[in-house]
Structure to design on (122 residues):
């Protein structure tokens, strides 16, 4: 005997049923588009590389100001970043935070297109 929610869905008129979204073959298998996920990962990796270049060009006072802003968001002293040698794991979390600050949470379609152009021209 099917669950009550399935019985209700079958008993509902066709107009009341929820329409199913069309999915591609890769989405049906894994729940997401593999190609797009790979491009998003490539864009995020490029963001980190660009971020390292940006941080390398900053002068110490400007860099310290960014570090202070990041450290203000942390509660644990051991995870704070400083100029010089840092603990393992501190830099990746700082880079992720600063990348989100510069470019936002989501990878845009324009960034994906730019990444594809770079990949094709290389």
């Amino acid at each position: 005997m099917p669950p009550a929610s399935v019985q209700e869905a079958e008993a509902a008129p066709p107009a009341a049923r929820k329409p199913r979204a069309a999915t591609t073959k890769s989405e049906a298998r894994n729940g997401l588009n593999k190609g797009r996920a790979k491009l998003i990962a490539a864009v995020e990796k490029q963001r980190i590389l660009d971020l390292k270049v940006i941080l390398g060009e900053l002068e110490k006072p400007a860099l310290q100001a960014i570090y202070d802003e990041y450290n203000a968001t942390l509660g644990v002293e051991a995870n704070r970043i400083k100029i010089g040698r840092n603990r393992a794991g501190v830099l990746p979390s700082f880079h992720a935070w600063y990348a989100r600050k510069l470019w936002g949470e989501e990878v845009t379609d324009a960034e994906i297109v730019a990444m594809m152009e770079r990949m094709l021209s290389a």
